[in-house]
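Team,

Forwarding the record for the chain on the shared tracking sheet. I've put the sequence and predicted structure together so nobody has to dig through attachments.
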Amino acid sequence: MNKTAGQFASVLSAVFALGMGASCAQAQDHGYVMAPTSDNVVVKNPFGLCWRTGYWTPAMATMECDPDLVPKKAEPAPAPKPAPVAMPAPKPAPVAKPAPKPVAETVTLAAETNFDFDKSVLRPDGKARLDDLAGKLKAVNLEVIIAVGHTDSIGSKAYNQKLSERRANSVKAYLVSKGIEANRIHTEGKGETQPIADNKTREGRAKNRRVEIEVLGSRAQ
């Protein structure tokens, strides 16, 4: 070897030594063998795999050389779902209250009208009683009116029977004239069979010449 060739080899050795030193320093920093002529270029074998240094640890793994060893970044936790808005419970439909049932009150009205001897014509005081009764019937749900005629004991039983019936019919005719339905009025005669006073006296016989009236019906309370 001549002198010039020896100098060139010495210079080349020095350069290579400097490069190797730099490469080792970079390998120690990166964990992989780095090319001496370029920054951050990893030396790879013919199979494309990175050369690891003796200082390499899994903590030095890079995405380029060992992507499977690089710790995965924790994915951000999903945002919490908004709590469902509580819908107010539907109000129950109002329950219709049943209509109150009408309460009926049974009504019994009584009236009495007297007659002159052997007469079936109503006297003024008798008409006044019947007018009062007709007024009260306006507030009553009428069912039936029962008019029962009576006589004193003077005369035959057969005659007195007919007379008592005429007196009852006289009361019915008057009530019909006041607007009472005729089919609501029932009449009958008892003759002299049911006295309420002594027929031996004038006053007693006057009381026995009568028509007793009973009204049956109802009215709402």
